Amino acid sequence: MTDLSAFPIVTRWPASHPDRIQLYSAQTPNGVKVSIALEELGLPYEAHAVNIGKNESWTPEFLSLNPNGKIPAMIDPNGPGGKPIGLFESGAILLYLSDKTGRLVPADPIRRYETIQWVFFQMAFIGPMFGQVGFFHKFAGREIADKRPLERYRDESRRLIGVLETRLKGRNWIMDDDYTIADISMLGWVRNLIGFYEARELVGFDDFPDVAAWLERGLARPAVQRGLNIPARA
Q1: Using CA atoms, how far apart are residues 57 and 53, in angstroms rounded to an integer?
Q2: Tens of pLDDT, residues 91-101
Q3: Which of 76, 89, 145, 195 has a CA positioned 20 to 30 A from the CA of residue 16?
Q4: Is 201 helix (H, G, I), strand (E, B) or coil?
Q5: Is 224 left (phi over 0), alpha (psi -120 to 50) or beta?
Q6: DSSP letters along 38-50, please?
């Protein structure tokens, strides 16, 4: 029997299957990237819903695994050397899962680093900018009379979509014909921008046909469809 007692988070979200990867997450763009990757890889895992609306990610148990207080976080009971490992930050988790399985990242070292740079591009630019558009366009920020912050994030988000458009011209995926963690890192964010954040018209999304076609291809993947709904909402 695998012992996860060294991780205080299991006292709040007990593991029914402690021998499987334990995922602590919610259906946000950062959360679903990991569930999509796990579904694509076919790794056995147990998903625990963290209710961010009730601030569960700021509880001592969650913070013991992810001191940044954001979802997702993960425990792999069979980490390097067979020892358990706890991880936070979605990009790091994607890299870990790809290294663990030897999949979703090209084997060639040059293409591997190129893939990683696009994951970092999502984490440093796509995620933060799209999130700010959501705040100022759909959530509390829309009540602010001064629209300059919204305009700034709108323009920067449009620029970033343009970067993706340039990259995807003549390509099926970020890395040509290789579907990788770079695609997984961004699919949920682009989907949220034009769907949940209702910013399709705001950013002029229809001006970027290659990004739109890439998003459609990605969302058609069965593992993506499953992963978008994992974990089930608390």
Answers
A1: 9
A2: 999 999 999 99
A3: 89
A4: helix
A5: alpha
A6: HHHHT--EEEEE-
